[in-house]
Every structure is written in structure tokens, then in C-alpha cells.
Amino acid sequence: MTAYRRLLIPFLAVGTLAGCAKPVAPPPPPAPQLPPDTVRIVDTVRVESEADRGLTQRVTALQLQLLEKDAVLADLREQLDAAIREVVRSMARLQTLATRAEAASAMAEAEVAVQQLETRTGGRTAAEYAQAKRLLDMSSGEFNRQNYGGSVYLANQAKGAAATARGRLAEAESDSLLPGEVRFTVPLRLQVSARSNVRDGPGTRYAVVFSLERGASVMGQSYVDQWLRVTDGQGRRGWIFYNLVTGVR
User: Sign of torsion, CA 144 147 148 152?
Assistant: First the structure.
């Protein structure tokens, strides 16, 4: 073998190996490096967004429920007004035994009650005052039509509405509840079933502050055990034993 061939063989071998080797792909570019808390921030935003959606849905549901309750209340108010008008018409047809003097007296009492409510509330119970005033105006209208029975009925309704408002106001003005005292969701219209003492606290050890005759109307505000906190038509407050009053239907 000549010296030329001996020099050529290594180059031929290198060329053969180069032709058989597969091409090598260039390495992929490095992935972008995120700040170490990026994933945590993204997850937090996602969770807060879901919480916001849930809160929005709940607020929407509550708004719809409020609209529903307002509609029910408006419907009940219309039914009540219709019932009152029917009672007044019936009294007009029956020519009840109420006299002009009795109607005038009932209207005067109702007017005093409504004026006291207006002075005391300072606009804080405008809706209740408006209801009492409307009933009083209706009473005056029936009086002018000589429907004295209807006038007395409406005047009593006006007094009842004013008493309810005064009861709510008295409860709102109370400093605090006694230990164990539970407030009623709404004031209860009650009637005294026998001559009763009203005391300064829930128990016989408390002093008697005033007395009520049988048939007197009171508003129940709250209770402790078997004692009720009540307010009478004159705004007086105290405690009466539960079995001395009955509910007004």
C-alpha cells in the first residue's frame, strides 16, 4: 500500500461515519422563568373571583326575595283595605246603633292618639303615622255620611295603629333588654282579661306602677319567663303576668 493510500483511509472512514450519523436537532429555547409566586397569585385571583360570583348570586337572591315580600305585603295591605271598606259599608247598610256623639268621641280620641304619635316620632315611623292618619280621615268621611258605626270602627282602627307605632317606638327607645328577656318579632296586640296590676319588673317583688281594667288594650313588646313587657294606650310601660292577657283576633 502506498503512502498516499495510507493517508487517505482515515479521511474516508470519517466521511463514511459522518454520512451515516443522524442530524442533531437544535436544543429547544429555555422556558420563560416566572416569578416564584406567580402560580399562587393566579390561584388566589381565581378563588376570589368564584367567591365574588357566589356573593353576587346571594345578593341577587335576597333582592328578589325582598321584592317578593314587598309584593306580598302590598297584596295583604290591599286585602286589609278591602276588608275595612266592606265592614264600613256593612255598618252603613245595617244602620248600627252607634250615635253621633259616640262617633265624635271616638274620633276625638283617635285624633289625640295620632297627634301624640306625630309629635313623639319626629318622622321616624312615617309609614305607621300615615296609616293611622288615613284611617282617621276615613272615619271623618263616614261621620260626614252619617255612618256613625263605620266612623267609630275606623276611629278605633286609627287608635290601634297609633298604639302599635307608639309601642314600637317605646321598644326602640329602651336602653337594653333584661337578662333572659326575649323581644317579640312584632308587637302583640293584647287585651287584659281581668283587672290587673302592671309592675316595674318581671315579678311580684317589683312595685306596682299602674293598674288596668278588664278589656284594656296593650301592646306586648317582649317577655321574661311568664311575664310580658307591655305598653298601654297612654304610653305607660310595665310588666304583666302572661295569663292576665289574651290575644286580639
Answer: negative
Per residue in 67-85, pLDDT (tens digit) is 677 777 777 777 777 777 7
Residues 79 and 164 grouped into a single domain: yes
Nearest one of 217, 218, 199 to 208, comparing CA atoms: 199
CA 169 – CA 127 distance, rounded (Å): 13
Q: Which of 213, 101, 125, 111 is nearest to 156 (CA)?
A: 111
CATH code (residue 232):
2.30.30.40
Please, which residues have CB within 8 angstroms of residue 148's CB and are 6 or more apart in sequence? 96, 98, 99, 100, 102, 103, 142
In angstroms, rounded to a whole number, what is the distance separating the alpha carbons of residues 162 and 124?
13
Distance of CA 134 to the CA centre of its chain: 24
Q: Is residue 117 part of a domain?
A: yes
Q: What is the pLDDT of residues 110-159, one digit of tens each?
A: 898 888 877 765 545 567 778 888 889 998 988 998 888 888 888 988 88
Would you say 121 and 165 are in contact if contact means Cβ atoms under 8 Å apart? yes
Sheet with 208-212, edge to edge strand ranges: 208-212, 196-199, 237-241, 227-232, 217-224, 182-192, 245-247
Angle between helices 148-173 and 126-144 (to 10 degrees): 170
- Is residue 56 assigned to a domain? yes
Q: Cell 298601654, residue?
A: 232
Number of Cβ atoms within 10 Å of the Cβ of 150? 27
